[in-house]
Amino acid sequence: MASTFNTLLASLGAGGIVGIALATLVVGAAIGFLVYRIYSQNKIGNAKREAARIIEEANLEAKTIRKDGLLEAKETLNKMREDFEHETKERKQDWQRTENRLAQKESALDKREDSLDKKDATLDKKIEDVEKSQKQIEETKARLKGIEEELGAAKQTMQQELERVAGMTKDEASQELKAALLDSVKQDSVKEAKEIIAQAKDNAQKEAQNIISAAIQRCAADHATENTVSVVALPNDEMKGRIIGRMGRNIRALESATGVDLIIDDTPDVITLSSFDPVRREIARLTLEKLITDGRIHPARIEEMVDKVRKEVEAGIKEAGEEAAFEVGVHGLHPELIKILGRLKYRTSYGQNVLKHSIEVASLASIMAAELGIDPKVARRAGLLHDIGKAVDHELEGTHVQLGVDIAKKYRESNDVIHAIAAHHNDIEPKTIEAVLVQAADAISSARPGARRESLENYVKRIEKLEEIAKSFDGVDQTFAVQAGREIRVMVKPEQVNDANLTFLAKEIAEKLENELEYPGQIKVNVIRETRSVEYAK
Fold it and tell me: How far apart are CA 385 and CA 358, in angstroms?
């Protein structure tokens, strides 16, 4: 085959080959054109068919949208028609109600107009009556003026006649009468003043005696025994002889070293220690107990044991002061002030331990200050130190309040703390909230049931007796015991008791309380007189 093709090519030559190639190209081009035309026509036909399909789908969708739009427009129209009808109905109702109200108001106005017409007629009549009354009043005034002129003339004539008979003018007679009355009043006043002074002197003597006796009665029982005496139990009566020693040398050495009096009597197995200083008494008690336990009792051993016990007690005092300050949260106290505070551990008042009482007052004052929304630090510090003077009141002269103020000033406490200490028994008027809180906390702690050897039953009876005594006086309306019995408020009847008698009534109530009632501390008698006038505007 290949050889045949080759032979054919050779026979055609170069010209024939070119011609064949050209013919082949022409034929290929014609075929390509034809194919391209057929492809183009097919593509155009497909595009036309696709366009016709899209147009048809668009028409269908347009019809659907038109139909949905018509339905939605109809629904909107129906809704708008219903809203319009509803609104129209409501407006018609409003108009109807408005018309009804207008009709009612018009009717009310008609009635008011009729009423005003009637009032105008009544007012015209009253005006006529007033004019008539005014004319009558003017006529009466004229007649009274004539009578006054006649009386004036008669009075002048009478005065001239009296001056002629008495031989002096009106002013001279008035001056003479005033002088006579003034002399009489002065004489009566001087006499009454002398009687009051004499009576006051007598009453002052009696009052002083009553106060002293009452103070002795209130302070000489358990309180004095608790503060001045301690009892040491002995294993046997032979120990009394050993404590006394040969020629009394042991007891003398013990009394000299401790500053405490030893009372050895016929009471079996007991020795009594007496001293106003609770710290010294505690040192003596511990020393004696240690000597009894040790068995070696002689002057040298006594002095050695006293020194040892004194150091222990001083350390215990400091520890007690630090514990008290830590317990209530008071910081920054001077070391010496802490020692003085610790000495209150051995001090009692009506059986109540003063250090525990001070801790309780500090806690109460702090709680109340916090409830009132103020800083509780000052109230807490003042409450802890308010009775600090009781630690040294047996050594120095003065009340425990004044001694406490001096101690607080010495160790540079703040002015608020010093003022609260000074005012906690009303020695001065409290001027700060903290001072009032310390005062109230002190009253609560010391006068509450059970604080000072007083049962709840006795406490209630004392409060009832306090109010009963105050109410027994004439003119007293109501009585109220407040501050746990530290104050009695007496409301008097203003029509029976005047202001001048309030002082005397308060004094009489205080005297009767002192004579008939037993109580710790002091009771403030507050008599109140109140007058009210009430009227009603119609």
Answer: 7
